[in-house]
Amino acid sequence: MRLGAAIAVVSSIALAGCSTSEVFNQGYVVDQTALDLTPVGSSREQVLLSLGTPSTTATFDNEVFYYVSQKRIRGAMFMKPKLVDQSVLAVYFDDDGTVKQIANYTLQDGRVFDMISRTTPTGGVDKSFLAQVLSGAGDPQSTGAAVARSILGN
C-alpha cells in the first residue's frame, strides 16, 4: 500500500513539472511609465534616455525609431513556442529632432493596427519607412498586414 502511494506522489510531481508554461519576450517590452516620459515634443535625447536604444531606425524623410517586440508561450519544454503577440512601437521625429508622433503598431485580426490612436494606417497618408514597408513598397499584390507578418516573423 505504501509503495502505491509513493508511486502516485512521484508521478503527480513529475506531471506537475510538465504542465508549466514558459513565456518568452523578445525585443523591446513596452513600459508604460517610460512611454509616459516621452510625450509629443520631447527631444531625441529624452527618447533615448527613457526608452533606450531602438531596435532599428529609419532616416528617409524624417527620423523614426522602431522598437520591435514579440511574445511567445511554450506549454512544455519539448513544445515549439507559439507566437501570441507582436508589436512595433514607432517614434516619429520632425525636422527639429523633436517627437512628432508615437504609434504602437500591432497585428489585430490580421491587419496592422495602431494601439495608441486606435486607427489602422492607410496608404498614401504617411510615407515613412514603416508605411512603405507595411503597404508593400511598390508591390501592388501584397497587403500591409501580409508584409508586416513577414517582417515580424509570423
Describe it.
With 154 residues, the protein is an alpha+beta fold. It has one domain (21-151). The chain is 29% helix and 30% strand. Strands 1, 2, 3, 4, 5 and 6 form a six-stranded antiparallel sheet that branches. Strand 4 (82-93) and strand 5 form a beta hairpin. Helix 4 crosses helix 5. The model is unreliable at 139-144 (pLDDT under 50).
Features:
6 strands; 154 residues; elongated; single chain; alpha+beta; 6-stranded antiparallel beta sheet
Q: How many separate helices?
A: 5
Largest sheet: 6 strands, antiparallel
Uncertain segments are 139-144
Q: What is the terminal separation in angstroms?
A: 52 Å
Helical amount among residues, as a percent range?
25-40%
Strand content: 25-35%
Q: Spell the H/E element sequence.
A: HEHHEEEEEHH
**Helix/strand/pairing category:** alpha+beta
Oligomer: single chain
What Rg, in angstroms, do the CA atoms define? 21 Å
Mean pLDDT: 74
Structure summary, number of beta strands: 6
Overall geometry comes to elongated
Domain tally: 1
Question: How are the SSEs ordered, and which strands pair?
Answer:
Layout: H1 2-18, E1 22-27, H2 32-36, H3 44-51, E2 56-58, E3 64-74, E4 82-93, E5 99-108, E6 111-114, H4 129-135, H5 144-151
Antiparallel strand pairs: 1-3, 2-3, 3-4, 4-5, 5-6
Helix pairs in contact: 4-5
What's the gist of this structure?
The protein is an alpha+beta fold and 154 residues long. The protein is built from 5 helices and 6 strands. It has one domain.
